[in-house]
Design goal:
The protein has 312 residues and is of the alpha+beta class. It has helices at residues 16-26, 64-84, 110-118, 141-148, 197-206, 216-229, 234-244, 286-290, and strands at residues 3-9, 34-40, 47-53, 88-94, 99-105, 124-129, 132-138, 157-163, 178-179, 187-194, 247-254, 258-263, 272-275, 279-283, 307-311. It folds into two domains: 3-39 and 138-311, Glutamine Phosphoribosylpyrophosphate, subunit 1, domain 1 (4-Layer Sandwich), CATH 3.60.20; 44-129, 2-Layer Sandwich (Alpha-Beta Plaits). Helix content is 29%, strand content 30%. A hairpin with a 3-residue loop joins strand 13 (272-275) and strand 14 (279-283). It is globular.
């Protein structure tokens, strides 16, 4: 079933961390297994943010000592490889026992950097971007937000997901959102199912893209990033996706300065929209929007095949 939500402050920053936590917690009943956030802060000069994990939460239940030693090795490997490629690390902070946040500057090939950092089993980059910070873990929104201190995050826009595992494992790798590797600042959350997932995945792999999961949501992120890389703007790429991707789906996509929504031709998956001059909020259920707007507001349901894009 799953739940998705997104919000955008037009022309300003706001407390998107606490707002998205409230929205996703209101959707907890749609997906209690894991929760994910793609939060967009204000870029700082030429600095980039990388969110990376070195183990799964469940690994600690098997052998804490062995996993801690492996994490130390993974951390040393990432440090060495960033330095070898000429990246200057300004800070590296442990968000949890197994997840780190790097702030660094880098002027080289981003795909080369990402490939080199991830070329060790157990190291997974969750996101790289100037504004994007992607955080996902097991538990509901409040549990994950508390673990990563997301309530105080200020930014312009964000998307998030509550997951009910159906066809894949309950782990961080299978949780949403998905970053469009290796394109900075592009993320997607999705509710539904794509029936031509493998067809598009093979096409994108032939074009040199790689995938970290077998989740159909990831192919949407990579598909859109590929379209943008080939010269389409976001709205054009999304409209093409509605005609080319088969299945029942509603998805939200975020870039460094935009938030977009698309529904398939049957509009089988729910989406509720609230729009004002200052703020946009979208969610699988109205209860999520009312968690941050308890006053009387007017909402609407997007139509079939509808595509909308808003600017931060």
């Amino acid at each position: 079933m799953c739940g998705i939500a997104g919000l955008i402050h037009r022309g300003r920053s706001g407390g998107i961390g606490s707002q998205l936590v409230s929205m996703l917690q209101a959707l907890k009943h749609r997906g209690p297994d894991s929760t994910g956030f793609a939060l967009y802060g204000q870029p700082k000069d030429d600095l980039m943010v990388m969110r990376v994990k070195f183990a799964e939460q469940e690994d600690f239940k098997k052998s804490r000592i062995a996993i801690r030693e492996k994490i130390i090795d993974h951390k040393r490997t990432v440090d060495d490889r960033l330095e070898a490629l000429g990246a200057k690390v300004h800070s590296d902070v442990a968000a949890t026992d197994y997840a780190y946040r790097y702030l660094f500057s880098f002027k080289g090939d981003l795909q080369k950097l990402a490939d080199y950092v991830e070329d060790v089993e157990g190291i997974e980059i969750l996101s790289i971007g100037r504004g994007l910070e992607l955080i996902k873990d097991l538990g509901d929104a409040e549990q994950v937000a508390g673990l990563y201190d997301l309530g105080s995050f200020n930014g312009t826009h964000a998307i998030g997901h509550t997951r009910m595992a159906t066809e894949s494992d309950v782990d961080i790798r299978s949780a949403h959102p998905y970053w469009a590797y290796p394109f900075q600042d592009i993320s997607v959350v999705h509710n539904g199912q794509l029936t031509n997932y493998w067809t598009f995945r093979r096409q994108l792999e032939k074009r040199g893209h790689r995938f970290v999961s077998n989740c159909d949501s990831e192919v949407i992120a990579v598909y859109l990033a590929d379209q943008l890389d080939r010269g389409s703007n976001l709205e054009e790429a999304m409209r093409r996706s509605v005609s080319e991707l088969d299945g029942v789906f509603t998805y939200l996509v975020a870039t460094g300065n935009q938030l977009g929504m698309a529904k398939d031709t049957m509009a089988a998956k729910p989406m509720v929209l609230y729009e004002s001059d200052e703020f946009i909020a979208l969610a699988s259920e109205e209860v999520a929007i009312r968690s941050i707007f308890p006053q009387e507001i007017d909402t609407s349901d997007p139509y079939d095949s509808e595509v909308r894009v808003w600017q931060a």
